[in-house]
Design brief:
Layout lengths: L10 E3 L2 E3 L6 E4 L6 E5 L6 H17 L3 H17 L1 H12 L3 H25 L5 E8 L7 E8 L4 E4 L7 H13 L3 E4 L5 H14 L7 E3 L16 E5 L2 H9 L1 H4 L4 E5 L4 E5 L8 H15 L9 E7 L3 H13 L19 H15 L3 E5 L19 E4 L8 H4 L6 E7 L2 H9 L4 E7 L4 H15 L2 E7 L18 E4 L6 E4 L9 E8 L1 H4 L11
Parallel strand pairs: 7-8, 7-10, 8-9, 10-11, 12-13, 12-17, 13-16, 15-16, 17-18
Antiparallel strand pairs: 1-2, 3-4, 5-6, 6-21, 14-15, 19-20
Protein name: 3,4-dehydroadipyl-CoA semialdehyde dehydrogenase
Pfam families: Aldedh (PF00171)
Keywords: Oxidoreductase
Length: 530
Amino acid sequence: MSASTIELLPNHLGGQRHVGTGAGTTLLDPVLGDALVRVDATGLDLPGGFERVRRQGGAALRALTYRERAGLLKAVAQVLQAGRDAYFALSTANSGTVKNDSAVDIDGAIYTIGVYAKLGEALGDARVLADGEFVALAKGGAFGSRHVQVPTRGLALCINAFNFPSWGLWEKAAPALLSGVPVVVKPATATAWLTQRMVQDVIDAGVLPAGALNVVCGSSAGLLDALQPFDGLSFTGSADTAALLRRHPAVAERSVRINIEADSVNSALLMPGATPGSAAFELLVKEVAREMTQKSGQKCTAIRRVLVPEALYGAAAEAIGARLARVTVGNPRNESVRMGALVSRAQFDAVQAGIAQLQGVAETLHDGRGAALVDADPAVAACVAPVLLGSRDPDQHALLHTTEVFGPVATLMPYRDLDHARALVARGEGSLACSLYGEDDDAAADALAATALDLAAVHGRVHVVTPAVAALHTGHGNVMPQSLHGGPGRAGGGEELGGLRALNFHHRRAAVQAAPTVLSRLTPPTPPAA
């Protein structure tokens, strides 16, 4: 099949449909190797399109109240719910995911939109957010100051990673749209089909103002050049690319606001006092195996380092390996398969190279790559079975704490005491998430709370699991819209979600100084806490 006979997906920018004029990039099924569709952004007038987005989409959104914009989000969710079956099919074809993993992406996105619709409803019929109380600047309070947050007058450019083409779009877009800021999404090329289809479905449904939601598929060339001072840039991807973005004139000279989520070598920590087979021990084992295999390990929040007391190293290796040995890998269309593919052969090669690199400083505790794939050709399919590595001396190898292999790979390491464990976790130089596993008694709760606060300094989120919440906790790697997503240092230093906190990125804080009679008319009562 020639490239010209493969469907070329249109871009949507500033209320207009654009078909790229170049050869484009062909998207492939990562299991079967079949050509699916093409994407291309050649020939787009990005500066002109961005200006239409700001002028048309931005103005129309800002004219609405938070309650009215919440209604738009509800309508978006209804459109996506109606297309859910088609999105699952696209996810299987373009991302190689089993049904449960597709649900994490697609249903997680619809749920996130719903959460922000409810938050917006609670904000009521306002167009500005209060930020703090009146502060007197003159005797008797006759003159004072009030801080407000107003929607930015620019657009939100969202550059997303390949692993969550649905959730990655909507976890960024929902808070922006609720804030009154139009969105331009640039999905990762390899899995752009699902993102493009969702945007196109919402645009075709006419539930948003023209120019409020836009998608550009293909090359990212020129996107940042078209950004202006009041725009925002939200990026999820590698630390190397993030470093380039920080140096771009749009950010360095025009002060475009930027939020980055980059590499993260996340940890799971089994607290002291656990024993083989204890409730906390089994909870850790179960969660590590799930995190290694969900989305084939292609999650920015996935567990990469597993820390256990020294005496439990062997038992943990055996228990985790036993769970991983039961995971069937191959074609997600086969109902017996529990883990599908990586998104591409390029990612397959990167993961294999990363495993080999870590094997240079760690022992191999479990390697499922010797098992046959189910209904898949190993020469074609981008499937990698789970690999558990281990190091009995994690202090000696910085590579274990700084290298993220973006696949079904984790490294087990022992610690001497809790101080040693916390030091090892901190060597990740900033991560998105850390999970702690302990018991429910008072002494254990004290230690868990103290450790959680200590590790909060180097993480965006600390997830504490005890037997009492075994069937209730949301999972180490699941990002809930009510909680913060982001992390310091290596993780990019950004913040997304966290309830109403996400709106801060899309608003500008300003102080208005005036008489109380004027200030009292600026905003409605302070909204509920995030």
